[in-house]
Amino acid sequence: MRRWARWEKVLLGAFLFWSAAGLIFTLGKISALQAGAWPLPVWLTSFVRGCIEYGDPILILLAFANTHANAARQWSAARARHWVLILLVASLLIETIGVLTGFPFGHYRYTGNFGPMLGVVPLTIPLAWYVVVTNAFFLAARIASRRHNQIALTALTCTAYDFILEPFASGAKHYWLWTGGTVPLQNYLAWLVLSGALAGLFAPRTEPREPRDLRPAIVLGLTVLIFLAGR
Description:
mainly alpha, globular, 71% helix, two-stranded antiparallel ribbon, two-stranded antiparallel sheet
């Protein structure tokens, strides 16, 4: 296993720190208003309130950076850039169509609470797609050797991840709202089909160089813990 570059260690450390802070604030149900009443220096109070208000978008950015760093190490920088470009563009297009038409996920809309918007979709959403599908694929590649089994496991992992995410993101945080207030079954079917199709059609066929790298499990595992804590 090649030694990590210093910037890879810094990225992972930042993600671990931010995840730990997110878990503490979530489990303690600490709001930005409560943090503002703490007897702290003004600059520290502002920092803490900023962490709470923008914590989830920043967590996605850090997860994205760690995911892409691992992808470049597992495949190559060029293959990772090709993969990230396809996934970001495809997911943005899929989400835009989904919001405007209700297909393929069902009828929903974003509230603007999950970071800056690009049209009708927050910029963080394509990044989140990349984080979920890429890390699910690496976990699947570690478990299964055959390509079709890897794709099936990727699709199942992404769908399970979205099932855990929904009560947190749409229920507790209101990052997006479903028409009727209920997540439709077609949302999970769409995730199953689309995540499998994206991985099957576009994920590099090069075998991961370091399949035992723990970053995919760390990134998905810690974000799932935050989702469960915040329900």
